[in-house]
């Protein structure tokens, strides 16, 4: 499994504070979801999952016009005064605003938290629904409509559309793992998924790995897959071999209209490390940067255990079974500031 420490090196891997200039741009496979050649899509995806765990997805069905609207609404939120944003501070269900430095993804190498702010939007479940008692289900935290008209409607529409894209990608992943195409469509998996939309804003700070300063510290994502939409500002880096010391970092170039897709730790567990989650980080270069991450996990009660197609007498399961909700709760707790810290500052 990936370590939060970024592979045990100094978190730089590109040669001190010059890492931003010298890291190369990675060449990733591109999956066309409109293609009728499913065999080719499976082959391209499988190669990407074996090589680096990152790939592009194009022709996914979400229009560029709508994507631009989502980005514009995101910018409108982050442009609000700090006091207004703090009124929407994330709650115990991880819904709402995450301030600058709130998240610490790579404590072994970071001086302090990430130089980014964010906003979590999960699956909307009414408070009186029994399901709302589970850690990652419940009502969302929404800005007042008079402050940001149309904001909630835009984000709910995007949440729904992105889940359909994720399900399409998961079907190709299932085939790449020699499973039935609808394996991840089951109710206990993506039928009742913990799908979390996260708006992100990097404010223009310059990262300096040699000083432990990052837009986002080195980490691997927790769940099944992540769909990432970005603006055109370079910043995301990946380390294809997370066990390398020092890490070797490559940029992932933004592609207009495409999702950048990466595998999470849960899929690594499921596949018995055949498909690996990938270490990645964000370096700021002085420009503001916006991105929209969509994290896709199965339901709380889904038991994540080695897939039948990924184990044998010579390759027994490497991880014990674990419930999705238990695993996610621990990972979020490990990386986010205790909410009591903010409450103490308000007394």
Automatic annotation (TrEMBL):
PROSITE patterns xref list: FE2OG_OXY (PS51471)
Gene3D superfamilies named among the record's database cross-references: B-lactam Antibiotic, Isopenicillin N Synthase, Chain
Domain of life: Eukaryota
Pfam families per UniProt: 2OG-FeII_Oxy, DIOX_N
Annotated ranges, domain Fe2OG dioxygenase: 193-298
InterPro entries: DIOX_N, IPNS-like_FE2OG_OXY, IPNS-like_sf, Oxoglu/Fe-dep_dioxygenase_dom
GO molecular-function terms, A-Z: dioxygenase activity; metal ion binding
Keywords from the UniProt entry: Iron, Metal-binding, Oxidoreductase
Protein family: Belongs to the iron/ascorbate-dependent oxidoreductase family.
The name this protein goes by in its record: Fe2OG dioxygenase domain-containing protein
Organism, as annotated: Eucalyptus grandis (Flooded gum)
Organism lineage: Eukaryota, Viridiplantae, Streptophyta, Embryophyta, Tracheophyta
